[in-house]
Design goal:
The complex is a heterodimer of chains A (314) and B (317).
Chain A: H1 3-10, H2 13-29, H3 36-61, H4 69-83, H5 90-115, H6 120-138, H7 148-154, E1 157-158, E2 161-162, H8 163-181, H9 183-193, H10 195-200, H11 205-231, H12 242-252, H13 264-284, H14 290-313
Antiparallel strand pairs in A: 1-2
Helix pairs in contact in A: 2-13, 3-8, 3-11, 3-12, 3-13, 4-5, 4-6, 4-11, 5-6, 5-11, 7-11, 8-9, 9-11, 12-13, 12-14
Chain B: H1 2-10, H2 15-31, H3 38-63, H4 71-86, H5 93-117, H6 122-141, H7 151-158, E1 160-161, E2 164-165, H8 166-184, H9 186-196, H10 198-203, H11 208-234, H12 245-255, H13 267-287, H14 290-316
Antiparallel strand pairs in B: 1-2
Helix pairs in contact in B: 2-13, 3-8, 3-11, 3-12, 3-13, 4-5, 4-6, 4-11, 5-6, 5-11, 7-11, 8-9, 9-11, 12-13, 12-14, 13-14
The chains are: A mainly alpha (314), B mainly alpha (317).
Chain lengths: 314, 317
């Protein structure tokens, strides 16, 4: 492990402490927490968030943001629900079509950001809203059917782990290696630290940015398949609730909003924290409406704390 | 001729948007095959006035290089507070309005202070804030909207003075006041400066932080007024009723030529922007894809308009 990787992982340290405190505190406070079904449940609920938040971390690490991933997820559930049960090649065509759709949306985002200099947030909000409209035209209310074999595959349990969680963890590990041990990842960090310097040191920023945003959208498509398997149908608004969480998880995990600092390890821990909050509040019987306030405050506080610390470092 | 060209190029007044507005009205008339009376158009303007007022606020935040994504939820909050406090009676009208506007001003102040003092991205802060507001009113109402608006307040939206709706008069009055403040007062000039270059305005001797905070407070207050008008329009409590106004207000400001980088734009552009958005959504309803079509229009409009304005700034430099 090189020094730079260590310094990135250090950013995730507060999140680690929070996870430990939460797990220890809750297992003392409520008996139902440390049982295998409950833990498996927490992990399964986190898995989609882990995948989508990892995608978001790629955007945050370049200093941008991608708001469109929620709509890409919804679109994927719709495409999967429409095509996957049709004929022998149904599932395959659904997979191909959703990847093409995701790649296209990502390419639009990337092009808008690099060639038209539109702020990342604005262009991705526009594509989010646009794709949401398309989703509502394609499928006004939830419906369709997901390939039963696919749904069964996603519900396999191995010991205390469930299939979605295993996929999410594998995904996180792959993302970690891409970010820290490949040229693509190093370029991504370089762009995040300073786009101008990256350009001057010979990185093709425009091409890289477009491929990063395409990668993000295609990752969102994968999260969309997981979501489709869970809800077993297509839904035009299924992904909407993931926008906020996908940003909150990396931020809590120590990824800087200014880009170039943090790792997916932090994102993983941040996602776990968010689902633990849900689980703990349900276990303690607190009104689910408080979750909005707690999540919003947590996001704001962690932003403030990290912003302070960064200022000292610089 | 050269002089006119010069005037058009270096004048702030957004001619293009007014031409676009005329084109939109023409399209609307063609689509409805001339069955639309002037009364119908005035009714559209009446329905547009909540958006018009909240868009003024959104333009102010955009001018200080910010963005307020919590304005829509603030409108929902005002609606729920008003309806639950009044419950159809007019005794508590004044108190209800006072409380909701105070709440809005407080939210705006928190937004502004957090954004300026902690140097955080405005959209994240306001998005987190909108989540908190949403949680707040879910807890307050327990997820079920109750109550209705007093008749006296409903006059704001249903009343007509002569041939002109009261809501439209209110909107235009607020728009004129804010335009004059922006163009003709020292405060307005400071607001433009603080948005265009915060450091320079700090160095030139006024506290840009305060100006930016005041812009967020003003935006929140305008959102509160828009919420009152929206409540008067629908007449009952409804959860999440105002949330779609957030993106609409951004789209309206952006159509009007307000830049996301701050310091560029004017309320003269926002006014036709609001009308264009409203006519577009009326058109979508006529075609029969109201909700989906609205989303698609919002997305396309914001992306295209921002791309155009970015290209234009590049040319000027």
């Amino acid at each position: 492990m090189t020094g730079s990787v260590k310094s990135h992982i250090k950013q995730a340290f507060p999140a680690m402490v929070i996870v430990l405190i939460m797990v220890i505190g809750t297992s003392i406070a409520s008996e139902g927490f440390l049982t295998i079904p409950n833990l498996r449940n927490v992990m399964t609920q986190t898995s989609i968030l882990i995948v989508i938040a990892t995608a978001q971390s790629f955007a945050l690490l370049t200093g941008g943001i991608d708001m469109s991933i929620s709509s890409v997820m919804s679109l994927t559930t719709i495409i999967t629900a429409t095509f996957s049960t049709h004929g022998t090649f149904g599932l395959l065509s659904a997979i191909l079509l959703s990847i093409i759709a995701g790649g296209l949306i990502g390419a639009v985002n990337g092009t808008g950001i690099c060639y038209y200099r539109i702020p990342a947030m604005i262009i991705t909000i526009s594509t989010q809203v646009f794709v949401k409209g398309i989703c509502l035209i394609l499928m006004p209310s939830s419906g369709g059917k997901i390939h039963p074999g696919f749904v069964r595959f996603m519900r396999i349990k191995i010991g205390m782990f469930s299939m979605p969680f295993i996929i999410a963890v594998c995904f996180c590990i792959i993302a970690f290696f891409i970010l820290h041990y490949s040229r693509f990842g190093r370029n991504l960090y370089a762009i995040g630290n300073n786009e101008l310097y990256a350009e001057q040191s010979g990185i093709n920023v425009k091409n890289n940015m477009i491929s990063i945003y395409m990668l993000i959208s295609i990752t969102a498509v994968m999260a969309g398949w997981m979501l489709a398997a869970r809800i077993a149908s297509g839904n035009p608004l299924a992904g909407d609730s993931y926008t906020m969480d996908s940003i909150a998880a990396p931020v809590i995990g120590g990824i800087s909003m200014n880009g170039g600092l943090g790792t997916v390890v932090g994102t993983f821990l941040g996602s776990v924290i968010l689902s633990l909050i849900n689980n703990i509040m349900n276990n303690l019987g607190i009104s689910p409406y408080f979750q909005y306030i707690i999540k919003g405050s947590l996001l704001m506080v962690s932003l403030m704390l990290f912003q302070f610390r960064r200022k000292k470092v610089l | 001729m050269k002089k006119i060209k010069f005037l058009i190029r270096y004048n702030d007044f957004p001619f293009g948007i007014y031409i676009l507005l005329i084109l939109m009205v023409a399209t609307f008339l063609i689509f409805t095959k001339g069955t639309v009376s002037p009364m119908h158009l005035l009714n559209i303007a009446r329905a547009a006035s909540p958006l018009g007022i909240v868009a003024i606020g959104q333009t102010l935040t955009l001018l200080v290089a910010g963005l307020d994504l919590s304005l829509g939820t603030q409108m929902s909050l005002v609606n729920l507070v008003l309806a639950s406090m009044m419950n159809g009676n007019s005794d508590k009208t004044f108190v209800a309005i006072l409380i909701s506007l105070t709440l809005c001003a407080f939210i705006g102040m928190v937004n502004g202070i957090v954004i300026t003092k902690f140097k955080m991205q405005p959209f994240l802060v306001t998005m987190a804030m909108s989540l908190i507001i949403q949680g707040g009113y879910y807890i307050y109402t327990k997820g079920i909207a109750r109550g209705s608006i007093a008749r006296e307040i409903r006059y704001l939206s249903e009343g007509w003075i002569g041939n002109i709706p009261v809501a439209l008069i209110l909107w235009i009055a607020l728009w004129l006041i804010c335009s004059v403040i922006l163009k003709k007062t020292v405060y307005g000039q400071k607001l433009y400066m603080a948005g265009a270059n915060k450091k320079a305005s700090d160095l030139s001797g006024f506290r840009s932080d305060r100006i930016i905070i005041s812009a967020y407070v003003l935006a929140a207050l305008l959102a509160g007024i828009a919420g009152i008008l929206l409540s008067a329009y629908i007449g009952v409590a409804s959860v999440d009723i105002g949330n779609s106004y957030t993106l609409d207000s951004v789209a309206a400001s952006v159509i009007g030529g307000t830049s996301f980088l701050g310091g560029v734009g004017s309320l003269e552009g926002t006014f036709p922007g609001v009308l264009i958005i409203t006519i577009l959504s009326s058109l979508m309803t006529i075609i029969g894809i109201s909700e989906a079509g609205k989303f698609i229009c919002q997305g396309t409009i914001i992306a295209v308009m921002v791309a155009l304005s970015q290209l234009r700034t590049k040319e000027r430099r």
